[in-house]
Specification:
The chain has twelve helices and nine strands. The N and C termini lie far apart (about 90 Å). The protein has two domains: about 90 residues; about 230 residues, BirA Bifunctional Protein, domain 2, CATH 3.30.930.10. By secondary structure, it is α+β, with helices and mostly antiparallel strands. It binds 3,4-dihydroxyphenylalanine. 3,4-dihydroxyphenylalanine (DAH) binds next to β8 and β9. 3,4-dihydroxyphenylalanine binds next to β8 and β9.
Length: about 350
């Protein structure tokens, strides 16, 4: 019987080696180690053995059972590990594939140009100051030397509220009065960025809502040369080195003298092209020396103090910089346009 046990052990281990699936393995367990399995069948013959032989056979039978059980556990573990290996293989990632670009936002073109303008004037000591979008007629017009019925009001058609003294500001210039009244008689160097509104025909060059950046410097001994240097420096930082600035005589009620500042065309450098309408120059802002009446309205004595002011449309400046031919693209939310900047 010891021999039979040995043969059973070897034969079963042999079969086990060939098994590579959990279901076959389970079948093997039933056939070999189960209640009606080959080991149990063999041991049923123990009763016929002489009593003296039984302990040795019993001990051997236990050894065989332990060996087979251990072999079973090992095989089971092996098959499971193999299955995991296969799954890992199937799931493997090709790390050489190009990644998927995550959709990320960006700053709006208007925000970008406002920030750039703010950065440039900061290099010249200008601080940012903000004033209300809903204004009094007094600040938007009268204190800026534009009395009621003054023909200059026709330059800026206005959205009034139901109260005719309260309007949507047509320009950032009323901020000049507000900032002067806040700081007089201290010297001032500020820019005033913000939204403005005009009740006008929408065209490729003007919308009813738009940004402006106002500038104001007030102090002693400020001259037109300071204005010119400031604007020339701005033009070079904004449009690149070598840019030239010229002033043309103009009229604004709140400045005297008044000018319009042009920069030589950033496309053709002055030779004449479509962008500059063959003039060689691009208009970038209105400016001038603050009118004595306006200084007085702001709380400064015009015999002691002087100042310069300017006002520009960052939308217009973006159009020049990027050769955009219609200002309406800037305020509409078409991503195909906005994603270019
Ligand atoms: N407020 C003017 C406008 O909207 C622009 C302007 C011109 C502002 C001359 C100024 C200036 O400060 O000095 O048309």
């Amino acid at each position: 019987m010891i021999e039979q046990l040995k043969a059973l052990e070897l034969e079963s281990l042999d079969k086990l080696k060939a098994i590579d699936s959990l279901s076959d393995l389970d079948q093997w367990r039933v056939e070999v180690l189960g209640r009606k399995g080959s080991l149990a069948l063999l041991l049923r013959g123990m009763g016929q053995l002489p009593a003296a032989d039984r302990p040795a056979v019993g001990a051997r039978a236990n050894e065989v059972k332990n060996t087979l059980e251990a072999a079973y556990a090992l095989a089971e573990n092996g098959i499971k590990q193999q299955a995991i290996g296969q799954r890992l293989h199937q799931d493997q990632v090709d790390v050489t594939l190009p990644g998927r670009r995550p959709g990320s936002g960006r700053l709006h073109l208007s925000t970008q140009s406002l920030q750039e303008i703010g950065r440039i004037f900061a290099t010249m000591g200008f601080q940012v100051w903000e004033s209300p979008e809903v204004e009094l007629d007094l600040f938007n017009f009268e204190l800026l030397n534009i009395p009621p019925y003054h023909p200059a009001r026709d330059m800026q058609d206005t959205f009034y509220t139901t109260n005719s003294d309260i309007l949507l500001r047509t320009h950032t210039s009323p901020g000049q009065i507000r900032v002067m009244r806040r700081y007089a008689p201290e010297p001032i160097r500020v820019i005033l960025p913000g939204k403005c509104y005009r009740f006008e025909q929408v065209t490729t060059r003007s919308d009813i809502q738009f940004y402006q950046v106002e500038g104001l410097a007030v102090g002693r001994h400020i001259t037109l040369a300071d204005l010119k240097g400031t604007i020339a420096n701005f033009a070079i930082q904004m449009f690149g080195p070598g840019r030239e600035v010229r002033f043309r005589y103009s009229y604004f009620p709140f400045t005297e003298p008044s000018v319009e500042a042009d920069v030589d065309c950033i496309i053709c450098g002055g030779k004449g092209c479509r962008l500059c309408k063959y003039s060689g120059w691009l208009e970038i802002m209105g400016a001038g020396m603050v009118h004595p009446t306006v200084l007085r309205n702001g709380g400064y004595d015009p015999d002691i103090y002087s100042g310069f002011a300017f006002g520009m449309g960052p939308g217009r400046i973006s159009m020049l910089q990027h050769a955009i031919d219609d200002i309406r693209y800037i305020l509409t939310s078409d991503l195909r346009f906005l994603e270019q900047f």
